[in-house]
Amino acid sequence: MMPFSTLLILSVIFVFVTGGKLPDPEVKIEVMHKPLTCQRKSKHGDMLLVHYEGFLESNGTMFFSSRTSGDKNPVWFTLGTQEVLRGWDKGLQGMCAGERRKLTVPPSLAYGKEGKGKIPPSSTLIFDIELMEIRNGPRSHETFRDMDLNDDWKLSKQEVKEYLKKEFEKHGYAPNDTENQVMVDDIFKNEDEDEDGFISAREFTYIHDEL
Ligand SMILES: [Ca+2]
Ligand SMILES: [Ca+2]
């Protein structure tokens, strides 16, 4: 059986090709390129790395390109957390690394009646977005499963400690046991709400306002 997200994407493509009406017509999604292989699809909470160009629909003016502006690097953001335009949160779900989409975003899901900077009021925007890479977000289910070494659906201090150690090594920092312990204690102070000495899946996925 096909995973639900695959079905969703296929139906979006189908609707686009046949010119039918989307059930939720707010963001128009056109798949410009789809890679042959797709290991995973983007979902709420994932970190995405994208290159993109933004255009005004009214006259085709390009107002931003990550390939030519600033440091010319692609941009990281967390999907579905309103870090970016709502049109992106809606339009970049279920996407494969290497995929390119064209999104047509109405003003209500972009910069609204006011506009912003180079974006005039009430502008519909067109984005050409290439997804370069998908990583687990800080609060993803996969991250929790990675950390939960004995699969009992809760994180002990030891498990969190192991995970931090691994992460530090991955990023080229020498492991420092004292610092590590302080971080673990801090994390438990914030995350272990019922103070049972474990971080449950619910405690982990609940996003605190202060984070
Ligand atoms: Ca555990
Ligand atoms: Ca707990």
Automatic annotation (TrEMBL):
It is an enzyme of class 5 (isomerase). One of its GO terms (cellular component) is endoplasmic reticulum. InterPro entries: EF-hand-dom_pair, EF_Hand_1_Ca_BS, EF_hand_dom, PPIase_dom_sf, PPIase_FKBP, PPIase_FKBP_dom. It catalyses: [protein]-peptidylproline (omega=180) = [protein]-peptidylproline (omega=0). Coiled coil: none annotated. Residues 45-135 form the PPIase FKBP-type domain. SUPFAM superfamilies: EF-hand, FKBP-like. Its EC number is 5.2.1.8. Keywords: Calcium, Disulfide bond, Endoplasmic reticulum, Glycoprotein, Isomerase, Metal-binding, Repeat, Rotamase, Signal. PPIase which accelerates the folding of proteins during protein synthesis. Has a preference for substrates containing 4-hydroxylproline modifications, including type III collagen. May also target type VI and type X collagens. PANTHER family: PEPTIDYL-PROLYL CIS-TRANS ISOMERASE FKBP14, PEPTIDYL-PROLYL CIS-TRANS ISOMERASE FKBP7/14. This is peptidylprolyl isomerase. It comes from Nothobranchius furzeri.
